[in-house]
Amino acid sequence: MTLAAPPPSTPTPQQQESELQSLRLPWDLRLTAEQFERVCQVNPEAVLELSADGQVLAITPTGGETSARNLRLGQRLLLWAEGAGAGGWRVFDSSGGFRLPDGSVLSPDAALVRLDRWQALTSEQRRGFPPLCPDLVVELASPSDEGPRGVTALRHKMGTYQANGADLGWLLLPEERAVEIWLGGQQGLTQRLENATRLEAGEALAGLVLELGEIWAV
Fold this sequence. Notes:
The chain is an alpha+beta fold and 218 residues long. The protein has helices spanning 13-21, 33-42, 64-82, 115-119, 123-127, 151-163, 213-216, and strands at 48-50, 56-58, 89-93, 98-99, 105-106, 110-114, 136-140, 168-173, 178-183, 190-193, 198-200, 209-211.
């Protein structure tokens, strides 16, 4: 794979499709986080993540229902952060990647980071993949268990967040109307809520409540 400078003008859809099709990586290629960031910079239309051992993971676009749920989820987190959260948080959507302590670069569907942790980063760190694990991570499972958005793959991601210091993780399972709760400091342990209609974050994020009915119903 040859890395090149970004094109001087906005590419046409046909050019973008061609560039995406040309992104082919050897199965045994391993990158550092810095190399991965460069790959992302010259392939802005590709949705990629990086595992802890340096493997590049291609993430497929979401379907319409998952996209609508993601937007609703982000709206609710933002409303809380600017209201009951007293402005002490930053909210991130699924396009943002985080460089975790184990070297992986992952993009949760939604995330919250305490403002003091965010402000402790340099401007350069904020512009790239922030070198931290979010305090809250949320993932939305797709209807199928296949691929990087399936339940099996997302459980692996949730375990990675948990191992890298996330205080709280929510894995939302719309098809089952269920939620798996991943608590910080309890590696590999989860709690499961069946027929969940309401999700409360607890003391760490006081007042954060998700009314799941409006997220399930899209």
